[in-house]
Amino acid sequence: MPNRTVDDLVADAQALFDLRYHCSEAIAISTCRHYLDPFPAEIAQISCPFGGGVGGCRDELCGLLSGAVVALGALWGRQSCEEDDKWLYEVVCEYRDGFIQDNGTSVCRPLRDYYAQDGGRCGPLVADATRKLIELIERVAEQRPEAAARLARRVHVS
Predict the structure, then answer these.
(1) What is the pLDDT of residues 113-123, one digit of tens each?
(2) Is 95 domain-assigned?
(3) Taking Cα atoms as reference points, which of 61, 70, 65, 62 lies closest to residue 115?
(4) Is 143 inside a domain boundary?
(5) Which residue range forms the structural domain that includes residue 140?
(6) Helix count (H) and strand count (E) of the chain?
(7) How many domains does one find in the chain?
(8) Sign of CA dihedral 8, 41, 109, 118
(9) Which of 13, 68, 74, 116 is the 20 to 30 A CA-CA neighbour of 47?
(10) 56 pLDDT exceeds 90?
(11) φ and ψ at 87, to 5 degrees?
(12) Which of helix, strand or coil describes residue 106?
């Protein structure tokens, strides 16, 4: 895979969303496809039911936030119960807090209502959430060698 940029990964997520993948799938697949080699096909299956606020109900956690958490777990989740995962919890909370700060909520329905006002979908939010996730992953990888070691490749963040 040639050198990729944050914009490339954002475009990948947007393209998946435009193909009618759920928001949760778009962010998880595009992120994991870049950072994990080989790409575990189960990521698509695992992230699928989180679309549309958990099972399409719209009343729960935004699928983008769920999909980002799936991706972070796939990248850095512990592989045994003896491993320290507190740092990963901190990363997930940082992403969640930033998402809420940027969007005012983590609930699907108000986000979807806002982005679909004129018959649209959440495309701009897919792009923004993916960009913030990639930037966070790269920052954590810079700070934590053990996190960087779990990534198959990196992107340059300007």
Answers:
(1) 998 877 678 88
(2) yes
(3) 62
(4) yes
(5) 6-148
(6) 8, 0
(7) 1
(8) positive
(9) 116
(10) no
(11) -65, -35
(12) coil
Average pLDDT over residues 27-35: 98
Would you say residue 125 has pLDDT above 80? yes
Categorize the per-residue pLDDT at 2 as very low, low, confident or very high, splitting at 50, 70 and 90: low
Q: pLDDT band at 1, cuts 50/70/90?
A: low
Q: Which residues pair with 5 in a beta bridge?
A: 156
For the chain, what is the HEC assignment?
A: CCCCEHHHHHHHHHHHHHCCCCHHHHHHHHHHHHHCCCCCCHHHHHHHHHCCCCCCCCCCECHHHHHHHHHHHHHHCCCCCCCCCHHHHHHHHHHHHHHHHHHCCCEHHHHHHHHCCCCCCCHHHHHHHHHHHHHHHHHHHHHCHHHHCCCCCCCECC
Would you state the structure tokens that stand for residue 67, as one six-digit string?
């999909």
Report yes or no: 30 and 71 within 8 Å, Cβ to Cβ: no
CB atoms within 10 A of CB 127: 18
Q: Is residue 155 situated within a structural domain?
A: no
The pair of structure tokens assigned to 46 is 């695992």
Give the residues across from 107 on adjacent strands: 61
Q: CA-to-CA distance for 152 and 39, rounded, in angstroms?
A: 10
1 located within any domain: no
| pTM of the complete model | 0.94
